[in-house]
Amino acid sequence: MAQMVEINLRLPSLRLKAQAGEEARTIVNSDVRFTKVVELATIPKPGDALTMSAAPGMEFPCEVVQANWHDGKNRFVIACRYGRRSMSADDYLTIANAPDWATQPLL
Fold it and tell me: Per-residue pLDDT averaged across 5-31, rounded?
């Protein structure tokens, strides 16, 4: 039976290249999570791989770290990390600006 779950995604930090007259800057994502509510057929276990999307044609892998029931939300919260070692600035901006992904600061 399918269930609505909340994906809590950690993205890697990335360095944006400098343009003419600007310094390169680093986006640190250690204190931010990106969340999205999706419907899954089963609750994934740690180590499972999921394929998420942020825009039509833009899919990316993520690895499940843990799955916990959250009473206040009345659903499972699935903690995931980005499935690749690094990400491009375009992929980051697509996820950060996607209407179905919300940015949640940890502090």
Answer: 87
User: How many CB atoms lie under 10 A from the CB of residue 41?
Assistant: 8
pTM over 0.85: yes
> What does each C-alpha distance from 94 to 14, 23, 24, 37, 41 come to in angstroms?
14, 22, 20, 17, 26
Q: Does domain 3-11+28-105 have CATH number 1.10.10?
A: no
Mean pLDDT of 50-77: 94
User: How far, in Å, CA of 24 to CA of 47, rounded?
Assistant: 34
| CA angle at 14 for the pair 11 and 15, rounded to the nearest 5° | 170
For the record, the structure tokens of 31 come out as 């204190």
Q: How many CB atoms lie within 10 A of CB 56?
A: 6
Which are the contacts of 15, defined by CB distance < 8 A and separation ≥ 6? 24, 25, 26, 27
Instruction: Give the residue carrying structure tokens 């509510």.
Output: 37
